[in-house]
Amino acid sequence: MSIRSQLLKGILDGCVLAVIEKEAVYGYELSKKLQKVGLEDVSEGTIYPVLLRLQKNKLIIGEMKPSESGPNRKYYSLTAAGKEALEIISFEWNQLSIPINALLSKGDETHENK
Amino acid sequence: MKTSELIEQNNQRRELLTEENEKYYTNLLMYIRTKLTLSEQQSEEVLLEMLEHLIEGQREGKTAQEIFGNDPKGYADEIVNDLPLENKRNSFLFISEIALNIIGWFLIMRSVIIPIIGGDTSEIVFIISSLLLLILIAAMTAFGVKMIFGLISQSSFDANATDKKMMLKAGLYGAGGFLIIIVISYFTKEIGPSFTLPWEVSLGLGSMLLLISWLIKKSRA
């Protein structure tokens, strides 16, 4: 597993929650949206274990709905607990990302100091 | 949507898959469906979602391998780990349905055999012997189901496994189990108090149990 996909695995739950918060989506749509924002490393199938886990933890609920074009789709939306979890994850991510950015983008810093 | 509707839809939609994708997907499906302790409804929902995803991906020229990865067994295990367990009520109903079905057929077969053999002795039921036999059949059935589903699940991703090998194993188990039941019931024939159960009563009781079993099945589906 590449370093990028390992890092991603830890934060993928948060990414999925963030997409679902904007509007209710079904699986295929969700994977398209993740790829669109630039998370192309997420192999499409990985979202299903994540969705199951989030449902099990009652952070999201899924509802089967018939669609006009034929197949039934399961649309996911956040629960109150899911919104809370997303806030916590966003907060924690910011706490981490600022110092880590500062540490790991040393190159830019020395450049600025010149 | 009911579980039976999900399964029905899955069967129809699966026909849209290419041969290669169908093979990949069917392996996943067999592996997940044979995990009997998992919630059937939730399993079928995620299976249908994955199928719809695969159908849409196929339209864009993607293969199942590109979508679900190169390690189908590892992927299936992840899904299985994150699926919730079947709730107690459903498990209880499922087991009752099967138990009533077996006892029902047992009583009906008895009512067919007794008039053929004739004689009053064959209508006598020994309580302890009968209970022993019932427990034995129940245990054999439970163990057999577990073993056969285990075999199917194991062979899901095994390219070397053939249906013939599996049938042989299952057949041997069935024959062996049957032999054990016959031998043990022969030696425990006449234990405990007894009463007479005429074949007509046996037929009526058996039919009633089958009816109840069928009603449970209807309510479950």
Description:
By secondary structure, chain A is an alpha+beta fold. In chain A, 64% of the residues lie in helices and 12% in strands. Chain A has helices at residues 3-22, 27-36, 47-56, 80-104, 106-113, and strands spanning 60-66, 72-78. The longest helix of chain A has 25 residues, at 80-104. Chain A starts with a helix and ends with a helix. Chain B has 221 residues and is mostly helical. Chain B has 9 helices and 2 strands, in the order H-H-H-H-H-H-E-H-H-E-H. Chain B has helices at residues 3-14, 19-33, 40-59, 64-68, 72-82, 88-117, 127-155, 163-187, 199-220; strands spanning 124-126, 194-196. In chain B, strands 1-2 form a two-stranded antiparallel ribbon. The longest helix of chain B has 30 residues, at 88-117. Chains A and B meet through helix 2, helix 3 and strand 2 of A and helix 3, helix 4 and helix 5 of B.
Mind sketching the topology for me?
The complex is a heterodimer of chains A (114) and B (221).
Chain A: H1 3-22, H2 27-36, H3 47-56, E1 60-66, E2 72-78, H4 80-104, H5 106-113
Antiparallel strand pairs in A: 1-2
Chain B: H1 3-14, H2 19-33, H3 40-59, H4 64-68, H5 72-82, H6 88-117, E1 124-126, H7 127-155, H8 163-187, E2 194-196, H9 199-220
Antiparallel strand pairs in B: 1-2
Helix pairs in contact in B: 1-3, 2-3, 2-5, 6-9, 7-8
Structure, briefly:
The complex is a heterodimer of chains A (114) and B (221). Chain A has five helices and two strands.
Give a quick set of tags describing it.
heterodimer; A: 114 residues; alpha+beta; Arc Repressor Mutant, subunit A; two-stranded antiparallel sheet; 5 helices; B: 221 residues; mainly alpha; 2 domains; two-stranded antiparallel ribbon; 3% strand
